[in-house]
Amino acid sequence: MSPKPNLLLRYMTVADLPQVAEIDQLSFDIPWSEKSYRYEINESNQSFMVVLEWSRERVATRWQRWLNIHPYVEHRIIGYGGMWFIAGEAHVSTIAVHPKGRGFGWGEVLLAGMVRRGLVLGADEVALEVRVSNRRAQKLYEKYEFKRVDVKSRYYRNNNEDAYDMRLDIQDSSTCLRFEERYEALFKRHQLIDDFSPYAPPHARLKP
To answer: What's this model's pTM, rounded to 2 decimal places?
Structure first.
């Protein structure tokens, strides 16, 4: 029997915001407001907010068993991302992993999930900005065949650092095929359940 998956890629909910806000504040000098997150989750038709949820089964301790507490599953948000889809462009607006969870490839899972969502939506390209000093992130984007197309001067408000405008052309069938192969390998390696990329946001499904 194959091991039970313990990583879930799914749409962000309002209930996730305390954990998302913690990661945001640990990752960025200028975090998003709660109001912004609520709008992106519940109201925007162009926004696709995602979280990566880690879970594991915890065995009850002796005193918990004495209290008739059975084994339970612990859940934790370890990363999140956001994407806008406007006029054929899937634009990655934000992506972050909790500092304690970095180095496990979870940022790659979030990026790949958003690229795949763009493919499902029929995007022509995926776009994002990255600090010129953030070589680690650039290597990940280059792995997925993003190309630098421009430099945005003084893009980041906290220190006026420039940003690279990086884009992935997904109109080409060979590019899409290579991406799907990478995504399938990633899916198997992390035993991932993807409840994000194939589906519309929950609030969109409720609309008549």
So the answer is: 0.89
For position 24, what pLDDT does the model report? 97
CATH number, domain 7-198, options 1.50.40.10, 2.160.10.10, 3.40.50.300, 3.40.630.30:
3.40.630.30
Going by C-beta distance under 8 Å and a sequence separation of 6 or more, which residues neighbour residue 128? 91, 92, 95, 141, 146, 166, 167
Name the phi and psi angles at 29, rounded to 5: -70, -30
- Sequence spans of domains, the chain: 7-198
Asked if 133 and 161 touch (Cβ cutoff 8 Å), the reply is yes
| CA distances to 33, 156, 173 from 29, in Å | 12, 10, 39
- Tens of pLDDT, residues 165-182: 999 999 889 999 999 999
C-alpha to C-alpha distance for 150 and 9, rounded to whole angstroms: 31
Q: What residues pair up with 53 in beta bridges, in sequence order? A: 8, 77
